[in-house]
Amino acid sequence: MNVQPYVFFNGNCEEAIRFYSQAIGAKLAFISYFRDMPDDAGMPVREGWQDKVMHANFVVGRSTIMAADCDESGTEHKGFQLSLDADDFAQGLSLFNALAQNGTVLMPYQATFWAEGFGMLVDRFGIPWMINVEK
């Protein structure tokens, strides 16, 4: 059994995946757009959303994250955080700083009583992250 997070973006999924590729080394495994949906699928596509992501998979380390565009305007992501485990303090700091670009730092990256390094942020796409380096 495997649990994979499915993250929804408000029309900027492809931009987010490109950002994660640069920031944390994510690798795009699959992408399809609403324009790829068969005409007889019975699911209307919102006007202007033909070039938005219907489904994508990207890989970070050994984990796969699924993603898509979904009209989430006016809402914020709640009830989860993506947790990224780094190999050492320096790598954790680098990942934290990259994801924090134009985002919001909730807890600065630092040593804690449980971790060599730990920090929390919300990236520029509204996705909450925890970066952790175990002791």
Mean pLDDT: 93
- Please count the beta strands (DSSP E, at least 2 residues each): 8
What is the subunit arrangement here?
A: single chain
Category by helix and strand content: alpha/beta
Radius of gyration: 16 Å
User: Can you tell me the overall shape?
Assistant: elongated
- What is the N-to-C order of secondary-structure elements (H for helix, E for strand)? EHEEEEHEEE
Sketch the major β-sheet.
4 strands, mixed
Strand content: 35-45%
The percent range for helix content is: 10-25%
Number of DSSP helical runs: 2
- Uncertain spans: none
**Straight-line distance between termini:** 28 Å
Lateral strand order in the biggest sheet: 1-4-3-2
Note down, in words, how this protein is organized.
With 135 residues, the protein is an alpha/beta fold. The protein is 18% helix and 39% strand. The strands form two sheets. The chain has a four-stranded mixed β-sheet, covered by helices on one side. Strands 5-8-7-6 form a four-stranded mixed β-sheet, covered by helices on one side. It starts with 5 loop residues before the first strand and ends with a strand.
